[in-house]
Amino acid sequence: MMALATVEKGCVMSNRDLEHYQKMIDGDKESLEAIYDKYEKLLYSFVIKLSSDPSLAEEVLQEVFIKLWTHKAKYDETKGKFSSWIVTITRYTAIDIIRAKKNESVSLEEETDMPEQQGDSVEDLVEWKEKSSEVRKAIDQLSDDQQKIVHLFYFQGCSQSKIAEECDLPLGTVKGRLRLALKHLKKHISTAEGGIRDA
Amino acid sequence: MRECEKVLDYFNHELTEKEREEFERHLASCDECREEIEELQLLTEDLPFSTEPVDPPEGMKDRVLGAVFAEKESDSQENNVVSFEERRKEETEPKEPQPKRNNQRWVMRGLAAALTLSLLGNILVLTGGDEEVANEPPAVDSTDIVNQRVQLQGEATDASAIAAMIRQNDKNLLTLQAEQLDQLQGDEVYQVWLLEGDKPYRAGTFVANENGEGAVAYSMDDLPADADWDAVAISKEPDATSETPQGDVILSSSL
């Protein structure tokens, strides 16, 4: 029963996203604002995790919403959930901007003043609230090496050769190790969800 | 490095522009690589939700949305195609105090994400009667059926194009409409190519009008009838005689 309720809620949520998105395409500012309100905190927090730089996070969000508003990034509902799409666009925007800054030889490696992370906050985004502990638990179940490779690849956006160097692996085995770690992760998440959402 | 070994670096935008173009050509014909990228996308989709919440700073929403809405207005005021070169000039202008989009190039880079997704099967196959089909130029005294319709995208350009393969009275037509094209110089033309594997076939030539718009309707009768097309692409050519692409491919889509 729980699982079914979750699935139904998920459907309602993504329909509302789609509705907002379609109105936004037609130039409706309030719909863009609704999307912004819903995803602001997730995307902001996500970029900080990617970049360790709060000042950059605002710039990235601005770029992401410019892409939405000017139709430079287009969502196609047949390819997946809106939430997955908008975090993907955000990740690439962040990766590209971080790389641009690095090329300008501004080091982002040193952590700047990080805003305080909240303890147990209630986020507006139901999906985030539902998934966060599951995904964190699933990550915790990976071995240290697996966590490291996932972190380097996904959150740091490292190149294959950088990952090989950091993990002390031959270049040719990086992809296999990464896929294995990600598959383990997905399995743990699916198990936690009762496998319903992946069905 | 073999092309198939570049999947991770492609996924993370680590390839140079040239490498990326090469890889995308490879991707059009390598199911395995496409599947791997799709798989990476799927396997990583939950990871953002592991993020610990951080409160955005005061006033961020007003600043961000203010800049976003200003963007659209200035875009429509320009009303003309801004060439890549002109945008580059903008980049070198002094930065304003507010966090501002400081680098148009990185918007372009970001589009590679959109392109990645489009290569993963953002292909609309319409069966006719759809409102989007109604936008195609009307044909006289025949019932046209759209067999396949794709949107072409490119990284280093604002241009976009829609291509459709149309069945018309037992003949196959390729139609293509493009907009926001850069202006051509001298004898330059835009050339449409259909690719089977790595082999390009000419599939129509056109020029951009002063509004940066161009279109082509090409009879596919002269092309191999049994060809299994992998991709459609547009390149800028020095003149209308190129038998293979001499200039850069500016827009493409898998089929």
From TrEMBL, chain B:
Transmembrane segments: none annotated. GO terms for cellular component: plasma membrane. This is Anti-sigma-W factor RsiW. Residues 72-105 are annotated as: Disordered. Residues 84-99 have a biased composition (Basic and acidic residues). GO terms for biological process: regulation of translation. GO terms for molecular function: sigma factor antagonist activity. It comes from the Bacteria. Keywords: Cell membrane, Membrane, Transmembrane, Transmembrane helix. Residues 8-34 form the Putative zinc-finger domain.
